[in-house]
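Chain X:
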Amino acid sequence: MIFRRPKEKKSPLNIAGQERRQAIMEIRRISYFGLRQVLFYTGLSLLIIGAMWLAMAEQTGGAWVLIGLGVVSLGFVVVQWYPEILWIHHHNAGTAAYEHKRYEKAELHYQKAAHYAEKFGPDDNRIGLDLDYLATVYHFQKRDKDAEQLYQRALDVYAHTKGPGPGHKDAVQHDLDLLYADLHKTRGGPDQGARRH
């Protein structure tokens, strides 16, 4: 699912950054799920073969070993997969709510997605993605201080994580610059975005 911003907010930099984000997330998802699917189907196969051997009353000792290995394999997959599934659910639900301009619901889902993304470790940049999207929701809700803090945190995450490259950081910086431009228009104050460069 592609995260879209209103037309007046799009720029070539933002569009390119989002396309890059989507491609990298898809590559990560395929490789991540590929390994887990192998483990899942291996565990399931071991359970089925073990149950068949047990039902035929042949090699009951071997059947229990296969059943045990199947249960361990499936247990590992479930324990490891659960936060990933919840992150995907909340991230996609937040995006859907945002696209339908249900900002309160989008906020809730992005907060939960960020919570689960923190469990993926310090080298994972999905927390930056959710912080960026949550900041955008805050920006549309006119919660500019909260949005600015989250954009800054997202920039920090991208600065310290191994990941998809400078495109994400550039997109977040662009979003922060848009926030500063909006603040400059509404308040008539000095250009705060210039301090960041």
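Chain Y:
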Amino acid sequence: MTKKDFQGIQMLGCCSTTTDEKPISRKQREFARREQEILAAAVSLFENPHWETVTVEQIAKKAEIGKGTVYKHFTCKDDIYANISTGFMTRILTAYRIHDERTEIIDAIKEIISTSFEMFLGNPAEARVSFYCKRGDFRERLTPELKAEFEMLDEQFTGYIGTILQKGINQGLLPNKPVEHLMMGLEATFDGAIGSIWNGDINCPQVEDQETYITIISEYMVAGLVGLKK
């Protein structure tokens, strides 16, 4: 059973079925539950700064199962990384959409930036794994199914944020430049800021704490977008 299967079970509920689908068996529910327990164990171990050194054996021990059981769910550590990342990306998109009622473009952009910082700093293990999973060499090693899932999520992020930016362009609030270029700048600035926070590189005397640093970077990101049209 894949991660998508488990998400389907969650939506259906333990006992609910539709007229076109077979009832979810107890074995399937147990398999899905165990898969989530493995991922949760991995995330807890990945809190360590040297998370990439964590072994499948350590994950199995943390989940209180045999190493072989892990491999019944995931073929390798890359599969574990990928499932953690896609789950995290899905949660970020869900968090973005909570604020869909915002009509002011600049407010919507600010909310996206704020939510992104909250999600990445509030879930450092999953965020670090997601950063790692952006690498091209990592994506190339994945199964076709996982590659397709990442591509779908990338498209959803691009579509969601791109639509907001395009509205800003149409309203004359943002520069008339390719949306992809604007997103590239936002992503590069955000990634750099997160990296600085994780590495403890906030060494400016005028910045008293992390919250102040985030406020400065967030304002810079918005100002950079708006200022480009001058």
